[in-house]
Amino acid sequence: GQQVMQIPQYQHVQEGEDFTTYCNSSTTLSNIQWYKQRPGGHPVFLIQLVKSGEVKKQKRLTFQFGEAKKNSSLHITATQTTDVGTYFCAGPDTASKLTFGTGTRLQVTL
Amino acid sequence: GAGVSQSPRYKVAKRGQDVALRCDPISGHVSLFWYQQALGQGPEFLTYFQNEAQLDKSGLPSDRFFAERPEGSVSTLKIQRTQQEDSAVYLCASSLVTGAGNTIYFGEGSWLTVV
């Protein structure tokens, strides 16, 4: 079945530094979604990318979908303590199943 | 409702006990999903409903796990004879339309600890 890996597994940054997480799928994806999960919370939808090479921005967050539609990245500029959490990418495996990546846990300190 | 509601939020079960976890999706949402999330891991798919029909149960780990959505709204995930490896957060999610490629909205989860 489809596998979705993310790197790094964990990153600790000082507030104001940039952060990037990378997502790689074993299969071509029709689309990719990104979720954020705060400690003790539930995954919250951030964005969906559909087109090859697509780039979308949400304030300090920049999302990219690779040309081959097998990889994606999330970049956060000038991190803040409110960015703390685990970031998951997810892609549809079948018509009903969304496969989540392994996640990247971000810790931000002052 | 305003969001996906799950109950109980926390459940401690003795090994061998049966548990039932309830999910009340966003009103009008056709699709309903159950995911299992172990500590430090990403959510793992369990099962999917389109209205009252269970179209995919390929992720259910054993025949001790059973899910239903009899009237196409509220869903219950039942785990029989719980084992320690069943300890996890059980997340319910719903989507307005069908298909996993659409935005899904998660509930806060039911945290199950089997002792």
Fold and architecture overview:
- The complex is a heterodimer of chains A (110) and B (115).
- Chain A contains no helices and 11 strands.
- Chain A is globular and about 40 Å long.
- In chain A, strand 7 and strand 8 (71-76) form a beta hairpin.
- Chain A has 110 residues and is an all-beta fold.
- In chain B, 0% of the residues lie in helices and 48% in strands.
- Chain B is built from no helices and 11 strands.
- Chain B has strands spanning 5-7, 10-13, 19-24, 31-37, 44-50, 53-56, 65-68, 75-79, 88-95, 105-106, 110-114.
- In chain B, the strands form 2 sheets. In chain B, strands 2, 4, 5, 6, 9, 10 and 11 form a 7-stranded mixed β-sheet that branches. In chain B, strands 1-3-8-7 form a 4-stranded antiparallel β-sheet, with no helix packed on it.
- Chain B starts with a strand and ends with a strand.
- The A-B interface holds A 30-31, 33, 41-45, 48, 88, 90, 92-103 and B 31, 33, 35, 41-45, 48, 50, 55-56, 58-59, 91, 98-101, 103-109.
Radius of gyration of chain B: 13 Å
Largest interface, and how many residues on either side?
A-B, 23 and 26 residues
Helix share bin of chain A: under 10%
Order of helices and strands of chain A: EEEEEEEEEEE
* SSE series of chain B: EEEEEEEEEEE
The percent range for strand residues of chain B is over 45%
Strand content of chain A: over 45%
Low-pLDDT runs of chain A:
none
Major sheet attributes of chain A: 6 strands, mixed
Shape descriptor of chain B reads globular
Sum this structure up briefly.
Chain A is an all-beta fold and 110 residues long. Chain A has strands at residues 4-7, 10-14, 19-25, 32-37, 44-49, 55-58, 61-65, 71-76, 85-92, 98-100, 104-109.
Keyword list:
heterodimer, A: 110 residues, mainly beta, six-stranded mixed β-sheet, five-stranded antiparallel β-sheet, 11 strands, globular, B: 115 residues, four-stranded antiparallel β-sheet
What secondary-structure arrangement, pairings included, does this model have?
The complex is a heterodimer of chains A (110) and B (115).
Chain A: E1 4-7, E2 10-14, E3 19-25, E4 32-37, E5 44-49, E6 55-58, E7 61-65, E8 71-76, E9 85-92, E10 98-100, E11 104-109
Parallel strand pairs in A: 2-11
Antiparallel strand pairs in A: 1-3, 3-8, 4-5, 4-9, 6-7, 7-8, 9-10, 9-11
Chain B: E1 5-7, E2 10-13, E3 19-24, E4 31-37, E5 44-50, E6 53-56, E7 65-68, E8 75-79, E9 88-95, E10 105-106, E11 110-114
Parallel strand pairs in B: 2-11
Antiparallel strand pairs in B: 1-3, 3-8, 4-5, 4-9, 5-6, 7-8, 9-10, 9-11
